[in-house]
């Protein structure tokens, strides 16, 4: 029987999350959650974030605007696009999310929409009764361990949303010079995860001015350099946790000051603590309040 533990101590309403993976859905992470006070920090995923709101309202900032997703809405967030998330009403929201990799969705798109390239969703909140129903049924089947049903329904759900809501990606208009400076700055942050430079030293290394680099970095990635670094650290932490490295060691290996620091940032990006995430390697886990 499934049990759920509140993520935030002392909250008046049950706030719980469960993150897991199912071997029938390779390349797809799953999250079932109800949040009230929990807030996702601004972050980006390497893959897509696709889900259905069951109750309440989620608010999130994405592509320069604030969006509200109510019950029955489908949320569609593209890879590498910065966004946050929090309750849009006092009682919070409940949802079921699937996080397919770029490879998973691109493969389905190639089969259904040959020639469009990497899938792009122009609208982050859409009304799709069929898509919402399929997402929920796929999620339920994955939770029950029904491999054939979950894989069939998830593929059908993704295909339906691609046909109805995907479009050609618009051309990007950015300064080549800014792109180069940001690319070099990102490379430095990837190399210096544990001992990152100051913004002054980072700007000097890429031959830019500090404020100019901050603006360009945010324009390209959606995040300022320090937030990008923390998101990168969480991404690296996920890889180490997947490999079975203890959370306390992971914190030091990715540059967080201690395990509590890792836990705080990890929950703000992933939605569950590191220990709960690590147990997802067994394809079933419940979020808990400790690591």
UniProtKB/TrEMBL annotation:
SUPFAM superfamilies noted in UniProt: Homeodomain-like, Regulatory protein AraC
PROSITE patterns according to UniProt: HTH_ARAC_FAMILY_2
InterPro entries: AraC-bd (IPR003313), AraC_XylS_family_regulators (IPR050204), Homeodomain-like_sf (IPR009057), HTH-like (IPR037923), HTH_AraC (IPR018060)
Highest taxon in the source lineage: Bacteria
SMART domains reported for this sequence: HTH_ARAC
A Pfam family the protein falls into: HTH_18
Keywords for the protein's UniProt record, in alphabetical order: DNA-binding, Transcription, Transcription regulation
Name by which UniProt lists this protein: AraC family ligand binding domain-containing protein
Domain HTH araC/xylS-type: 183-280
Taxonomic source organism: Streptosporangium jomthongense
């Amino acid at each position: 029987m499934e049990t759920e533990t509140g993520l935030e101590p002392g909250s008046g309403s049950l706030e719980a999350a469960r993150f897991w993976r199912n071997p029938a859905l390779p390349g797809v992470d799953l999250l079932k959650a109800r949040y009230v006070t929990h807030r996702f920090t601004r972050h980006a995923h390497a893959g897509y974030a696709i889900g259905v709101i069951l109750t309440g309202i989620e608010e999130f900032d994405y592509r320069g605007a604030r969006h509200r997703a109510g019950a029955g809405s489908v949320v569609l967030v593209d890879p590498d696009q910065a966004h946050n998330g929090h309750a849009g009403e006092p009682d919070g929201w409940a949802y079921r999310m699937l996080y397919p990799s770029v490879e998973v969705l691109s493969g389905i798109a190639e089969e259904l929409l040959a020639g469009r390239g990497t899938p792009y969703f122009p609208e982050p909140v859409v009304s799709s009764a069929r898509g919402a129903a399929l997402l929920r049924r796929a999620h339920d089947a994955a939770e029950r361990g029904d491999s054939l049903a979950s894989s069939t329904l998830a593929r059908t759900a993704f295909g339906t949303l691609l046909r109805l809501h995907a479009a050609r990606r618009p051309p990007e208009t950015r300064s080549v010079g800014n792109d180069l400076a940001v690319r070099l700055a990102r490379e430095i942050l990837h190399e210096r995860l544990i001992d990152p430079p100051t913004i002054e030293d980072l700007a000097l290394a890429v031959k830019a001015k500090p404020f100019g680099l901050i603006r360009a970095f945010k324009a390209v990635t959606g995040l300022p350099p320090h937030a990008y670094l923390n998101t990168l650290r969480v991404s690296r932490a996920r890889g180490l946790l997947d490999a079975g490295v203890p959370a306390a060691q992971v914190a030091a290996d990715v540059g967080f000051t201690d395990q509590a620091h890792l836990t705080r940032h990890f929950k703000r990006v992933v939605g569950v603590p590191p220990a709960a995430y690590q147990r997802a390697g067994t394809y079933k886990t419940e979020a808990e309040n400790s690591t």
